[in-house]
Design brief:
Elements (H helix, E strand, L loop, with lengths): L17 E7 L3 E8 L4 E8 L5 H20 L6 E8 L3 E2 L4 E2 L13 H9 L3 E5 H12 L8 E6 L3 E7 L2 E2 L30 H5 L1 H14 L4 H6 L8 H9 L3 H25 L3 E5 L7 H14 L10 E3 L6 H11 L6
Parallel strand pairs: 1-4, 4-7, 8-11, 11-12
Antiparallel strand pairs: 1-2, 2-3, 5-6, 8-9, 9-10
Bound molecules: zinc ion.
């Protein structure tokens, strides 16, 4: 009797010398060729063609992968496989996206199998923030740590928790949603349906929303001047810039957002006592203004864990975090042996 083999579930190529990292986001897709040391050799980035549906997006990512191999002269046989990072929630067992809010049309989409189908190479899927956490542990700011918390503070707040060198997935692969812990029970509504989540208090979106509300009552605030194009052009960066100029309204908004960010990080430190906390995402571009304040609050609030031994540091992978993080999914395995 002949068994029928499925095309999906292609084998990981143990002799591979490179990995392809695919970062699928709601606004952009990025594909990169990464060597076994986590270095990006070549990459491509472009807006996500959401209009062409999930099939069109997968096809495009496969084309981009092909283009990178052509550009670099690397053959398919030298590729160990493809790591994919995508926004959750996901079913990692089935390699499927469940109901990603930023990727309409991808609900229940078998992304892992589809990428294998389009590329003919083995693929592995992970939540993008988890993948970035792994990338930071292997090649970024957490290289010496086996226990770390990674947080991305951007338009939203996401994260990945690594304990004893492994990502914590939890039931339903849903662990690590650090942006949705309640910090202010009667606080502003959050996109997740809850109130007073860290994301609703400290994300870039929350800061911008708060500033838009406050400039009406404080027309002399520098926020509007810095924004130039009026109320609608206010974003978190504008508010940080106005705060740097000494604007009292901007300073108050930023200070409150960082207060809750510090408390949120402090809570995670109390729960996990990690070796390090790594912060990435657009808001960390604020540098010392953010890190100094967050460290201060953590020291004030965390009493039972040796906070002085737990550095809170900027992410090390910068722009490549998505690609290297995705590639790390395969680099955990013994490639090349
Ligand atoms: Zn929430």
């Amino acid at each position: 009797m002949t068994a029928i083999r499925k095309t999906a579930g292609l084998r990981f190529n143990r002799k591979g010398k490179y990995v392809l990292g695919l970062d699928l986001g709601g606004t952009k897709i990025a594909v990169g060729l990464v060597n076994l040391k986590g270095k990006v050799i070549n990459s491509l980035r472009e807006p996500t063609p959401l209009g062409s549906g999930p099939e069109g997006v997968c096809e495009r990512m496969a084309e981009m992968s092909k283009e990178i191999l052509l550009r670099t002269g690397v053959g398919r046989r030298e590729i160990a496989g493809i790591g994919i990072g995508a926004g959750g929630p996901l079913d990692l067992k089935k390699g499927m996206l469940l109901s990603p809010p930023n990727l309409p049309g991808f609900h229940g989409y078998p992304l892992k199998d589809k990428i294998e189908e389009y590329t003919g190479m083995h693929a592995a899927l992970e939540n993008d923030a988890n993948a970035a956490a792994l990338g930071e542990m292997m090649f970024g700011a957490g290289r010496k740590a086996k226990n770390l918390i990674y947080m991305t503070v951007s338009t939203g707040i996401g994260g990945g928790i690594i304990v004893d060198g492994k990502l914590v997935h939890g039931v339903g692969w849903s662990a690590g949603e650090v942006g949705h812990m309640t910090l202010k029970p009667d606080g502003p509504e959050c996109n997740c349906g809850n109130r007073g989540c860290l994301e609703a208090l400290s994300s870039g979106t929350a800061i911008a929303k708060r500033a838009k509300e406050e400039v009406g009552e404080n027309p002399s605030s520098l926020i509007l001047k810095v924004a130039e194009g009026g109320k609608n052009t206010i974003d978190a960066e504008v508010v940080f810039r106005a705060a740097d100029l000494g604007d009292t309204v901007a300073c108050r908004i930023i200070d409150e957002a960082l207060f809750y960010l510090g408390i949120g990080i402090g809570n995670l430190i109390t729960a996990f006592s990690p070796e390090t906390v790594i912060l990435g995402g657009g808001l960390t571009g604020a540098g010392d203004r953010l890190f100094v304040r967050v460290r201060e609050i953590v020291k004030e609030r965390v009493k039972l864990v040796p906070v002085n031994k737990i550095p809170i540091v900027p992410a090390g992978l910068g722009e490549s975090a998505g690609i290297v993080g995705a590639a790390s999914l395969l680099l955990q395995k013994p490639v090349g042996v």
